[in-house]
């Protein structure tokens, strides 16, 4: 709606906002190696993949839902375009998905005295098929996860137990067009609710991560001055999980730059090399993985053979990564 008001596309709107955010961060001296967007082809593919796997596993349900419809705008209203009174604590001016006062989540149709923030009109109810994630299928795992030793403060785990005792509900993960985001596979005019693909964006943003290597001057290179331009490196990996402990990936590595000079005279050519290869990884234990792979030149300097066959034994431990791996295994 903001993009429509500005006379541009939604994609142009978010691109402009991203530029403004980067400008503001730069003003405070905050810089990022990789400033991504959740509205990317990579995140679309990852979000749809997670959805399809859950659909195949029987964790998705479809059923009609009564929604609030703005008769003046002629459109279904997303949660943020509806305000009213919280059905639990009776706080006024609350959005259509959750109360910011008591923290209760609810359906927009449960709001008391609702009104459209777009037109001010009183919405009417209409039925539409919605897609649900069967959160109760994971109740036992989630409750156990909150009680793992050292996971959460006891007081917080006790508070979360209230949710489990009341029973988890199916989560409505779809919204009707017009809606900005990713369309649900095999469901025309149905889109993922923003809080489905947005968190997944943190994972997908790491799938293509550029890096730059900088080299300092060497003032004593056989009594000569050696300087190197930055080495630009871009990696991309297309991965597939064969089992929970075994995955493979198709790997692309590009390296460019790295022009060398000795006493101001260029030596050799800049790098412009692309490698294609594969990786197979077996997670033997929580901390130990065995990895093998092969890569070779697909374009670039024919005189520089970068073919590489590798076998690695990797041992890693970190509190954050340990917790993350447990979450992934539980899913």
Give a verbal description of the structure:
- This protein has 331 residues and is α+β, with helices and mostly antiparallel strands.
- Helices cover 25% and strands 34% of the residues.
- It is built from seven helices and 18 strands.
- The strands form five sheets. A six-stranded antiparallel β-sheet has the order 10-12-13-16-17-18, with no helix packed on it.
- Strand 16 and strand 17 (288-299) form a beta hairpin.
- Helix 3 crosses helix 6 and helix 4 (139-147) runs antiparallel to helix 5 (154-166).
Give a short overview.
The chain has 331 residues and is α+β, with helices and mostly antiparallel strands.
Instruction: Provide mean pLDDT, rounded.
Output: 83
**Total beta strand runs:** 18
Q: Which class do the helix and strand fractions yield?
A: alpha+beta
Terminal-residue CA separation: 36 Å
Parts with pLDDT < 50 across at least 5 consecutive residues:
327-331
The biggest beta sheet is recorded as:
6 strands, antiparallel
Contiguous helical run count: 7
Secondary-structure element series:
HHHEEEEEEHHEEEHEEEEEEEEEH
Helix coverage percent of residues?
A: 25-40%
């Amino acid at each position: 709606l903001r993009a429509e008001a500005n006379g541009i596309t939604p994609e142009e709107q978010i691109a402009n906002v991203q530029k403004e955010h980067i400008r503001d961060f730069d003003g405070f001296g905050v810089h990022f190696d990789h400033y991504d967007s959740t509205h990317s082809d990579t995140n679309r593919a990852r979000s749809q993949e997670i959805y399809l796997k859950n659909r195949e596993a029987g964790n998705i349900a479809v059923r009609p839902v009564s929604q609030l419809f703005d008769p003046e705008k002629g459109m279904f209203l997303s949660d943020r375009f509806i305000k009213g009174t919280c059905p639990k604590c009776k706080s006024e001016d609350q959005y259509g998905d959750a109360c910011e006062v008591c923290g209760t989540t609810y359906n927009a149709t449960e709001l008391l005295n609702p009104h459209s923030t777009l037109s001010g009109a009183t919405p009417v109810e209409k039925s539409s098929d919605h897609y649900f994630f069967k959160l109760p299928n994971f109740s036992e795992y989630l409750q156990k996860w909150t009680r793992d030793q050292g996971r959460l403060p006891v007081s917080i785990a006790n508070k979360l137990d209230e949710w489990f005792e009341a029973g988890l509900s199916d989560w409505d993960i779809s919204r009707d067009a017009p809606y900005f985001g990713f369309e649900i596979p095999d469901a025309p005019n149905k889109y993922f609710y923003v809080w489905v693909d947005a968190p997944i964006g943190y994972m997908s943003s790491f799938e293509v991560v550029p890096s730059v290597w900088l080299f300092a001057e060497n003032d004593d290179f056989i009594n000569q001055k050696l300087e190197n331009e930055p080495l630009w490196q871009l990696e991309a990996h297309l991965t597939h999980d064969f089992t929970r402990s075994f995955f493979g990936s198709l790997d692309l590595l590009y390296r460019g730059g790295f022009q060398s000079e000795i006493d101001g005279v260029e030596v050799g050519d800049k790098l412009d090399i692309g490698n294609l290869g594969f990786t197979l990884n077996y997670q033997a234990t929580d901390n130990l993985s065995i990895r093998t792979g092969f890569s070779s030149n697909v374009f670039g300097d024919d005189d520089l053979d970068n073919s590489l066959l590798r076998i690695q034994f990797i041992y890693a431990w970190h509190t954050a990564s340990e917790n993350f791996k447990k979450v992934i295994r539980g899913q």
